Amino acid sequence: MTKQQQVILRLVQTSCAHCSADEIYRAAKSEMPGIGLATVYRNLNQLSEEGKIRKIETVGETDRFDKTLNQHEHAVCRMCGSMRDINVENIAEEIKKGLEGMEFTYELSVHELCKECRAKIEKQQAEIGA
Amino acid sequence: MTKQQQVILRLVQTSCAHCSADEIYRAAKSEMPGIGLATVYRNLNQLSEEGKIRKIETVGETDRFDKTLNQHEHAVCRMCGSMRDINVENIAEEIKKGLEGMEFTYELSVHELCKECRAKIEKQQAEIGA
DNA sequence: AGAAAAATGAGAATTATTCTCAAAAAATTT
DNA sequence: AAATTTTTTGAGAATAATTCTCATTTTTCT
Known about the structure:
The structure is a homodimer. By secondary structure, the first copy, chain A, is an alpha+beta fold.
């Protein structure tokens, strides 16, 4: 673990919640002036792949990073961009409310493997096994 | 309604489902060679604001456009990018399934007005009224 | 038809993020 | 500890989707 990685991890864990890469970059820069933006991005992605931090991707917003690992969702303010945590269990309820009162809007992005691609992968694996 | 707008609307309604702006652009170009990309984007956004078509925004994917107006969600294949419709009523259920079996991943993007901004707006409206 | 308003198209601008690659740092081997 | 290999860094270029600008064209209104 390099010094840069340590600084970045600590910043995500201790400084502002729901930070953007750029916010982390500026914070990191103030204690390590030579650090590069690419390094910040590289490590943020790496740390989130390792499960040490969580990357929050939202439609229309820049990615943010969070220390909280357990499953929860986020709501972004249309005006000021502030982000707050919302509870997974309430989603269905909140969605229903939202659809009625238009108190909020949401976009659900689901990523899967479609039937065709699943079949393709299974075929490939069978070939390797043969 | 300009000719361009008519062509664009018709293409969304009749050609490929879940088209990207670029796909619409190329299709439009083949029957109206002079059309510009900016015009396609402009009209797609306008049409979706008018509620005549629907813009599908997804984390990590380029925007797509859909003729289907009623509320439903979409699932994108991680490998080939193909998109299929999924039913709104099953969201909570599907999310739960997803969390258990990791058959798919999802990102929920909620957009709202935070308390502070709501208060700000109400204050402004009160001032105008006074 | 003529004037005013709106829409178009070409290309520049924007923005967040990733990529490239030479130099620096870290890890490993002797 | 020196030498060698591997990994990581940092600067800036590249990318890619979308929006913006603005002169020109088209449409609308009278």
